[in-house]
Amino acid sequence: MFKALAFAASISLAAGAAHAQTQAPNDAQIAHIAYTAGEVDIAAGKQALGKSQDKQVRAFAQEMVRDHTTVNDQALALVKKLGVAPQDNPTSQSLSKSGADELKRLGGLKGKAFDKAYIRNEVAYHKQVNGALSTVLIPNAKNAELKSLLQTGRKLFGEHQAHAEQLAAKLK
After folding, report:
1. CB neighbours of 65 closer than 8 A, spacing ≥ 6?
2. The domain that contains 139 carries what CATH number?
3. Which of 7, 25, 55, 119 has the fewest CB atoms nearer than 10 Å to its CB?
4. Of the ranges 19-23, 40-44, 161-165, which one carries the lowest mean pLDDT score?
């Protein structure tokens, strides 16, 4: 549980650091942060599909892979259309590192211990990403199409958070 909370805190701190460091991330940085956050959750979902035997956990993981892949594909199409290259930044780098660390930690777990840790992490991760979307990414996005995509993602990821919370309560 501590590791999942530490991971979630790193997302919050990373988003805050990006905000403080640049005073306002630009659209290219925002696109990269959002895309990276999706990639982290896709990797976690794929790991869960490889490890979990629980039907509900597997269904949730499939939903994460499907939905985050769809949003990331839309984001890539948008940046291509706009002629903008997503810009790597300290926040996206921190997300990648924290995601890899969490995959490694979860990789050492099996059975119900894995299922519980994965879902707890998904709750914490979605809370933090949704918070970053609401307080940093959406407010600072200048391009209307990017802002709209982020708002759509925020709504969908809010549903993910609620689903993860319900599943966490069942796995206790």
Report:
1. 42, 45, 46, 49
2. 1.20.1260.10
3. 55
4. 19-23
